[in-house]
Design goal:
alpha/beta; 8-stranded parallel β-sheet; two-stranded antiparallel ribbon; globular; binds 9-methylguanine
Length: 302
C-alpha cells in the first residue's frame, strides 16, 4: 500500500510522524499567525474562550471578560497553542449581537490575554470587529463566513494575521433546519478551494490560510460523517482546522448530553489529527494535549 496516502492505511500500521505529516501541496507548511510562525509538524491545539451568554456547550460559564481571561490563562497552562476568543455565539438559533456589544466583550479579553504566550484568534464574522481586534493585537481571525462579508477580505489583507476560512451552509439562525447537498464532500471542497483562491487574489499569502469544513454548520449527522471521513482529502487544499468538540454530532453518535462528551471529543480529535488536521479546536485542552502526547509516544516512529 502506498505510504504517501498515510490516512488510508490502518491506524496501527502508520507511524505517528507519518500520521502528522501534512498532505497538502506545500511539503513543509508553516502557518503565519500574527506574532507566531507555527511549523505544522504536529497538531496544534486551539482552546475555546467564549465570552457569550449563549454558546452551545459552556454558555454563560465564562461570560464576563474577567472570567474569560482566567479561563484563557488556564487553557494556556493546559497546553493550548492558540486561544480562540468569541463574543458572538454561532450555535443554531443564536441571537445576533451588534458590533459595539461584540467589541465590548472581546477587546478586554484580547488585552488581558495578550502576553499569555498563546497566539490569540478572534472568532468573528464582522469586518469592523476584525479591524478593531487586529489593531488590539489579535494574531488570527476565525471567520465562519470565510471572509464573504463585504469588506472582510480588505479588513484582514494588509495585516499578517492567520485566517481560518470555514464552510457553512446558510446562516447560524436557520442553518440546521434543512441542510441539503448533492455531494457534500465535493461541494464543501469546491467552496473551500474557491475561498482560498479569493483570499490569494485579495493579496493574502498562502501561509496565512487555514480551511475548515465547518462541522455542524448547516449539516446533518450524515453530512458530518461523510466530511469527517474525507478529512485527508480536504486537507490537500490547505492546512486544516477541525472543530468537533462537544458538538451534537458526537451526542447523536454516543447518546451523551453535552456535558458528557469528553471521551467522544478526544477520540474525534485524535482521529482528525490522524487524518491530517493541523489544528484542533477544543474545549478540553488538557485532555486533548495528553491524548496527542500518548499518540506520539506510543506510535511506531518518533
Ligand atoms: C466558532 N466556531 C464554532 N465551531 C467552529 C468550528 O467547527 N470551526 C471554526 N473554525 N470555528 C468554529
Amino acid at each position: 500500500m502506498a505510504l504517501n496516502r498515510t490516512w488510508d492505511v490502518p491506524f496501527d500500521q502508520t507511524s505517528v510522524s507519518e500520521m502528522f505529516a501534512p498532505r497538502h501541496p506545500n511539503p513543509s507548511p508553516m502557518f503565519r499567525c500574527g506574532r507566531t510562525l507555527f511549523t505544522l509538524d504536529r497538531p496544534l491545539v486551539m482552546g475555546i474562550v467564549n465570552v457569550t451568554p449563549d454558546s452551545f456547550s459552556d454558555g454563560g460559564c465564562f461570560y464576563s471578560p474577567r472570567q474569560a481571561i482566567e479561563h484563557g490563562l488556564s487553557l494556556r497552562a493546559a497546553g493550548a497553542d492558540i486561544l480562540d476568543i468569541g463574543g458572538e455565539s454561532t450555535r443554531p438559533g443564536a441571537a445576533a449581537v451588534s458590533v459595539e456589544a461584540e467589541l465590548d466583550r472581546v477587546l478586554p479579553v484580547l488585552e488581558g490575554l495578550r502576553d499569555c504566550g498563546a497566539a490569540l484568534s478572534l472568532d468573528t464574522m464582522k469586518p469592523e470587529v476584525m479591524r478593531a481586534a487586529l489593531a488590539a493585537g489579535a494574531d488570527m481571525i476565525n471567520d465562519v463566513r470565510a471572509l464573504q462579508a463585504p469588506g472582510a477580505l480588505e479588513a484582514v489583507a494588509t495585516s499578517d494575521c492567520g485566517l481560518c476560512l470555514m464552510h457553512m451552509q446558510g446562516e447560524p439562525r436557520g442553518m440546521q433546519s434543512h441542510p441539503h447537498y448533492r455531494d457534500v464532500v465535493a461541494e464543501v471542497k469546491q467552496y473551500l478551494q474557491a475561498r482560498v483562491d479569493a483570499a490569494l487574489a485579495g493579496g493574502i499569502a498562502r501561509e496565512r490560510l487555514l480551511i475548515d469544513p465547518g462541522f455542524g454548520f448547516g449539516k446533518t449527522l450524515e453530512h458530518n460523517i461523510a466530511l469527517f471521513k474525507a478529512l485527508s482529502e480536504i486537507a490537500r487544499i490547505a492546512p486544516l482546522l477541525v472543530g468537533v468538540s462537544r458538538k451534537s454530532m458526537l451526542g447523536l453518535i454516543t447518546g451523551q448530553p453535552v456535558e458528557a462528551r469528553l471521551a467522544a471529543s478526544v477520540a474525534a480529535a485524535l482521529l482528525a489529527a490522524g487524518r491530517g488536521a493541523a489544528i484542533l479546536r477544543v474545549h478540553d485542552v488538557r485532555e486533548t494535549v495528553d491524548a496527542l502526547k500518548v499518540m506520539t509516544a506510543l506510535g511506531d516512529k518518533q
